[in-house]
Amino acid sequence: AFLALVPTVIALAALLAAISRIGPARTTIVGTLEPLFTALLGYLVLAEQLTVRELIGGTLIILAVLTQRR
User: Fold this and answer.
1) Is 41 helix (H, G, I), strand (E, B) or coil?
2) Residue 23 gets which letter from DSSP?
3) pLDDT one-digit tens code per residue, 23-45
4) How far is it between the farthest Cα atoms of the chain?
5) Better-predicted residue by pLDDT, 5 or 49
6) Could you tell me which residues come within 8 angstroms of residue 40 by beta carbon, excluding any fewer than 6 positions away?
7) Cβ distance 40 to 1 under 8 Å?
8) What are phi and psi for residue 54, nearest 5 degrees?
9) Average pLDDT, the chain
10) Please, which residues have CB within 8 angstroms of residue 56's CB and are 6 or more apart in sequence?
11) pTM of this prediction?
12) Which of 8, 58, 59 is nearest to 35 (CA)?
């Protein structure tokens, strides 16, 4: 229960803090980067291998975020 409850509470608190500080629209754009950061952390910390499909997906995520910022 601890592993399910504590990360959920921390993530929700961080989300609510972000919404109050930078607004819901920007928070959503930043949230779009979560899969990219997860893949990068897996690569850096756990020595996971990134496939071509994942690299293309990461590139598309970055392009989408850059497009939304304009």
Assistant:
1) helix
2) -
3) 998 898 888 898 999 999 999 99
4) 42
5) 49
6) 58
7) no
8) -70, -40
9) 90
10) none
11) 0.70
12) 58
